[in-house]
Amino acid sequence: MKYRKKPVVIEAFRWTGIPYQTEDPIWCVDAINRGDIVFSPNGSMVIKTLEGWIFATSGDYIIKGIKGELYPCKPDIFEASYEELCDD
């Protein structure tokens, strides 16, 4: 059998590698304040995901999934999987 992934709308932003960058969405700031996102001594972002703590590096996309879960995604995978929606 073959399956096709259902289209879903997610929220995401590209992390520049700067803690507390000015374009962080409020859900990311909230996750930082809750302790679900922390920064390691080497400057990496560490995100509490459903699978455990995962490192994100500069340039990674940070995704908020359909159930509010957070996870990082490498740019090549993100760009092959998602397209930007126009705000109406």
Care to describe what's here?
It is a single chain. This protein has helices at 26-34, 75-81, and strands at 11-14, 37-39, 45-49, 52-56, 61-64, 70-73. The chain is an alpha+beta fold and 88 residues long. It has one domain (11-81). Strands 1-5-6 form a 3-stranded antiparallel β-sheet. The chain has a 3-stranded antiparallel β-sheet with strand order 2-3-4. Strand 3 and strand 4 form a beta hairpin. The longest helix has 9 residues, at 26-34. The mean pLDDT is 90.
Low-confidence stretches: none
Order of helices and strands: EHEEEEEH
How many domains?
1
Report the biggest beta sheet as strand number plus sense, adding barrel if it closes: 3 strands, antiparallel
| Separation, N- and C-terminal Cα atoms | 37 Å
* Biggest sheet strand line-up: 1-5-6
Radius of gyration: 14 Å
Assembly classification: single chain
Q: What is the arithmetic mean of pLDDT? A: 90
Basic shape: globular
Helix percent reads 10-25%
Helix and strand content put the structural class at alpha+beta
Number of helices, counting only DSSP H or I runs of 4 residues or more: 2
Percent of sequence in beta strands: 25-35%
Using DSSP, what is the number of strands? 6
Brief overview:
This protein has 88 residues and is of the alpha+beta class. The chain is built from two helices and six strands. The strands form two sheets. It has a three-stranded antiparallel beta sheet. Strands 2-3-4 form a three-stranded antiparallel beta sheet.
